[in-house]
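hey m, so remember when u said the tokens were messed up on ur end? i reran from scratch. heres the input so u can diff it against urs
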Amino acid sequence: MKRISVFVAAAIVAAGVSATSCDSKKSVNLKTAVDSASYALGLANGEGFAANLKTVPGKPIDVDLLLAGMEQGLKSDTGSYKMAIAEAQNFIQTYFMRAQAEELNSVKAEGEKFLEENKTKTGVITTESGLQYQVITEGTGEKPTAEDRVKVHYIGTLLDGTEFDSSYTRGEPAEFSLSGVIRGWTEGIQIMPVGSKYVFWIPSDLAYGDRGSQNIKPGSTLKFEVELLDIVK
């Protein structure tokens, strides 16, 4: 529901402050300050609205139809409406709830299929919870407990290889308490002696679950390469 609410809020903002046309190449003449303000509001909010459209579940939105509906609504051209406003609002909620559920099921199924195949590969170990890991380098230090604070370097990616987080990119290790991270990290890092480098594949229920997080879709299985540098005393 969070992503649906963001979409609807963006639509309201864009519709409330920007006037547009289905013809994006129409002549624009900025003769007065009001002209410039009108255009600037439309342009700025159009950019933001376009970014929000990328988060909408289901098939890509037809931009031409979206602009047609927006223009009719802005001009209160009720004679051209293809549906009543109440019907439109209800349809938005129903459509996107269904699309979001379908996308969630698809993403979870993709992760489950991957994990089922991955667990048969040489060197991959599956724990009782479903967490999978592979040892790249085995350290010789002590292992942390769930109450410890640790220092790590890591790269987090989706199953398609898209990187969503990296301490290497930020240029410094991360420090955090194992009691304050996703369950897959809490469990996995306790397996690692200090000085180790492991790869973890974390099922969605041990990661961000059905809610997702920022650039991580709900239901996503995640991959992390982790170096355990130290236990912070």
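this time it looks ok to me. The chain has a mean pLDDT of 87. if urs says something different then somethings off w ur setup not the seq
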